[in-house]
Amino acid sequence: PVIRKNLLQWMPAVALLFALGAFTAQATDPAVADPDAPEPAQPVVKSETKPPETKPSFSVLTSRRRAPWQERFTLGPGDVLNFSLLGQKELTRHFISIGPDGRVNYLQAQDIMAAGLTVDELRAKMDEALAEYYRAPRTIITPAAFNSKKYFLLGSVVQKGVFTLDRPTTIIEAIARARGLETGLQDRNIVEIADLQRTFLVRQGQRMSVDFEKLFLRGDLAQNVPLEPDDYLYFPPADLKEVYVLGEVRTPGVVPHTPATSTLGVIAARGGFTDRAWKKKILIVRGSLNQPETFVVDGSAVLSALTKDFRLEPRDIVYVHYRPWIRAEELLDTAVSAFVQAAVITWTGGHVGPLIRHPIIE
Question: What is the model's pTM?
């Protein structure tokens, strides 16, 4: 009886302890927390759905954006097509090429101009031409090969020439297709001998802002831009000992470099100044086309023996303008454009010839 009496006296205290323990567990367990209790203060985190970003890549296929020329892909000479009429398999014709004049023939539809048209536009013209011979014809056209879109790759690459742009292609893919850059021996090591400082990409008559040093030496894939039809890629050889004389000289061109090569000397070697040349300031461009170093030579002072002639280094660009200018930055783009134009003309004439039918630099 005494034990039972003491036990009854302690029961309320034990019950209170269990109740306090359960309350504490409930308060610390987020799964059973009181829904009416205020949440603890936490940093506010906004949940946003970011649009997919196009990351730099070796290949164009990873990009979700299409270039304007791809959005309206037109046919041209050399493209190969398959033709048929809906419901008439016996009239199917395979591998019909678009001729050099841009025209194509199918059944009674003769000399249909296909160059410059999309597949859908050519299909509509075929339907119109065949409507005189068939009832409600529906022409089916499927491309078999694209040969009309091309790009040019010259200079210090293993395989130079004209390449078919038959698939989306980046600069790196174009170099790989040309079997890489040319290599040579230097200090018993095999090195690439392309002059990346002077390498350029010309598109529609304009030099594109591509830093080839960043692309090939630093792995900056943001410079790995997709190519477009009629692009011109040029990798000058790095081992050439020559100077480029451009602008208002009698015969612009290349002069071999020697230790004694100077500014007025190379101008004299190219026939001298023209009648309208401004001799007071001659621009010298040295180094990278993207971040060049510039020098200004007072040609009049050199001719008057008031100052020494300026010594040149290999691959310097000497540019003579026809009117006065103050800062080198004013003339830099013109000088670089003249160099690009001269390089295109020289290499096109020597290595491509009649394959280029229209001027690349206007």
Answer: 0.65
Pick the last residue of a domain from 171, 205, 239: 239
Q: Is residue 126 part of a domain?
A: yes
pLDDT value at residue 78: 93
Q: What is the mean pLDDT of residues 160-173?
A: 91
Which residue reads 């300026």 in tokens?
310
Q: What DSSP character marks residue 350? A: I
How confident is the model over 34-51, as pLDDT tens digits?
443 333 333 333 333 333
> Do 234 and 251 lie in a common domain?
no
Residue 300's CB is within 10 A of a number of other CB atoms, namely 14
Burial string for 230-262 (b: 16+ CB within 10 Å, else e) reads: bbbbbbbebebebbbbbbbbeebbbbebeeebb
- Residue in the structure block whose two tokens are 């290999």: 314
260: helix, strand or coil = coil
**5: amino acid identity, one letter:** K
Burial class (CB in 10 A: 0-12, 13-18, 19+), 327: exposed
DSSP type of residue 221: G
Cα dihedral across residues 320, 322, 324, 327: positive or negative: negative
- CATH value at residue 113: 3.30.1950.10
Secondary structure (DSSP) of 139-189: EEEEEEE--S-EEEEEESBSS-EEEE--S--BHHHHHHHTT-B-EEEETTE
Mind giving me the DSSP string for 69-126? HHHTPPP-TT-EEEEEETTEEEEEEEEEEPPTTSEEEETTEEEEE-TT--HHHHHHHH
Q: Pull the structure tokens for residue 123.
A: 């299909």
Mean pLDDT of the chain: 80
Gap between the Cα atoms of 169 and 70, Å rounded: 12
d(Cα 103, Cα 49) in Å, to the nearest integer?
49
CA distance 159 to 180: 8
